Amino acid sequence: MTDSPTSTGTDFIRTAVREDLASGRFTRVSTRFPPEPNGYLHIGHAKAISVDFGIAADFGGTCNLRFDDTNPVKEEQEYVDNIMADIRWLGYDWDDRLFFASDYFEQLYQYAVTLIQKGKAFVCDLTADEMRAYRGTLTEPGKNSPYRDRSVEENLDLFTRMRAGEFPDGTRTLRAKIDMAAGNINMRDPVMYRIIHATHHRTGDTWCIYPMYDFAHGQSDSIEGITHSLCSLEYEDHRPLYDWYVREIGIYAPRQIEFARLILSYTVLSKRKLLRLVKDGLVTGWDDPRMPTLSAFRRRGVPAAAIRNFAALIGVAKNNSLIDVALLEHAIRNELNRVAERRMAVLKPLRVVIENYPEGQVEHLTAVNNPEDAGAGTREVPFSKVLYIERDDFREVPPPKYFRLTPGREVRLRYAYFIKCVDVVKDASGEVIELRCTYDPATRGGDAPDGRKVKATIHWVSAQHAVPAEVRNYDRLFKSERPDDADDFMTELNPDSLEVLAQAYVEPALASAQPGTPIQFERNGYYCADLDSTPGKLVFNRTITLKDSWAKIESKG
Ligand code: ATP
Ligand code: MG
Questions:
Q1: Which of 100, 271, 319, 538 is the S-S candidate for 469 at Cβ 3.0 to 4.6 Å?
Q2: pLDDT tens figures, 44-93
């Protein structure tokens, strides 16, 4: 954490925080990140995390991690564990400030009792359907529940018996008594507690009544002494309710400030929808590399710094807007270009025999690990008589402007020699299965002493030394820019989001590639070893292609 209570950030939240400190409304800054453990964190959460932790750090304050775990039916310990791992991976730390709304269940219950005693809450026997009918609409006021005027004594008795487990699920609720004619529907006698006979991942069977998120969230902030409760825009209409609860209960009031939700093109970010993709088997899990979750980005080889940089690039705005996923991809490439070591891998191999290269000879040629980072050094790459090159780097009949290998033409093998194709071997169906080439021993290292030039440099691996690998090329999971706009987002899935290349060959240095360590396969893209990779079966994920469409958009300006 930095210690600079004089943050120079000029976004509207930092401006507001600075004003609150100047006016004395608050004398310190305390924020929190409040996930519900009902799914994995996604890139939208990363934005919220960078706002919550970032602003606290800017003002020398603290940021809590609090799980808003009020719904035992949808929440699991697995989600809690993964959320913590993801936040740490992203580079943020809550130190010893880990909290759970479920730790406040007794306190929240007492707050509810306080409201009943003040005549501000009542036990209601309407069913869910009836309650909906009584609620009214945006244009019509609602109607008072027939149970609204129960006495304080009756309400206390019923609420106690709700807690004691006397009533089945759905038969009764505790509701706030506010105003059924309020323009803001959240204020129309909202439910505070419902009966759910379900085991909670932390409190077990201690409770069979659970607070609604809206009854837990603001009071949890209050209990923790949060100064600035930062949340996304959809909670703006809930703010009057949160304020009402803390005012009526008579406890400390934090200040809530809302910011724009991240909406990303070609992506869905609703946990409900992501869960459906997982449950319906359209992806292999929450960490399928095509998912927009942080665990998927990690598995795919995206550095945490790229996500942090992206969050900084988009900043915080007051209004929702669609962010181009190309901007995220740009941030990923920028980071990878700096940190990823280069290696050679042939994804769609074509066999090449160098006719004039001595049988059995092996040379070790020097290759640069990262031209962007001299400190990354060099490595030795074995070269021999039989090689693989990319099938796409040869055309028997070259189209216009095709400068790579073709019969009779000379090209450079990266870090090695000039070679020339002298013959083409085909199978019975006419498919090219091997090229016969010659090399010029005088061009070792890749330059001709007589100064002659070639128009293309292609990558290769030595057949005898190469390691077979499976390569998984991922593309965007959705084919349309705004999948959320479709009647059913599932119809917008990109059928070509995964291409498996089962017979790739990689240079021997990649045999020990570690999952999560980014690598650039020269000319092919950025990759990393997958979690599924073993020494016996190497598997690589494509993190991202090399082509940066965002840089192009920007330069056209
Ligand atoms: P989802 O709609 O994906 O289920 P959620 O808001 O229900 O998300 P929570 O676990 O409640 O998920 O979110 C924790 C915090 O992350 C909240 O404060 C919420 O404002 C924030 N958040 C969630 N999604 C986004 C997003 N797309 N952009 C910015 N912040 C987000
Ligand atoms: Mg939520």
A1: 538
A2: 999 999 999 999 999 999 999 999 999 999 999 999 999 999 999 999 99
Residues with CB under 6 A from ligand 1: 34-36, 44-45, 47-48, 231-232, 261-262, 269-271
Q: What ligand has the least distance to the C-alpha of 260?
A: 1
Does residue 276 carry a catalytic annotation?
no
CA angle 228-232-233, nearest 5°? 110
Q: Could you read off the pLDDT of 132-146 as tens digits, one per residue?
A: 999 999 999 999 999
Of 74, 97, 120, 261, which one is the catalytic site residue?
A: 261
CB 199: neighbour CB atoms within 10 A? 14
Question: Which residues are bridge partners to 62 per DSSP?
Answer: 30
Here the CATH number for the domain that contains residue 402 is 2.40.240.10
Q: 201 near 76, Cβ under 8 Å? A: yes
Nearest Cα neighbor of 32 from 53, 14, 54 is 53
Q: Which ligand is nearest to the CA of 38?
A: 1
Domain-embedded: residue 361: yes
| 478 and 368 within one domain | no
| Domain co-membership, 328 together with 390 | no
Closest C-alpha residue for ligand 1 atom 23: 45
Do residues 19 and 63 share a domain? yes
**Residue numbers of the domain that contains 129:** 5-264
> From the CA of 80, how far away is ligand 1's center (Å)?
15
Ligand nearest to C-alpha 316 = 1
What ligand 1 atom has the least distance to the C-alpha of 41? 10
Give a yes or no: residue 355 inside a domain.
Answer: yes
DSSP string, 238-299: GHHHHHHHHHHHT----EEEEEPPEEETT----HHHHHHHHHTTSSSSTT-TTSSBHHHHHH
User: Within a domain: residue 551?
Assistant: no
pTM for the structure as a whole: 0.92
User: How many domains would you assign to the chain?
Assistant: 3
Q: Looking at the structure, do residues 442 and 316 belong to the same domain, yes or no?
A: no
Confirm whether 552 is domain-assigned: no
DSSP secondary structure letters along 140-163: S-----TTTT--HHHHHHHHHHHH
The answer to whether residues 120 and 236 belong to one domain is yes
Mutate to test the pocket of ligand 1, among 31, 41, 45 (most ligand atoms within 8 A of CB): 45
Q: Evaluate whether 64 touches 29 at the Cβ level (below 8 Å).
A: no
Instruction: Identify the CA nearest to 246 among candidates 333, 176, 340.
Output: 176
535 and 524 in one domain?
yes
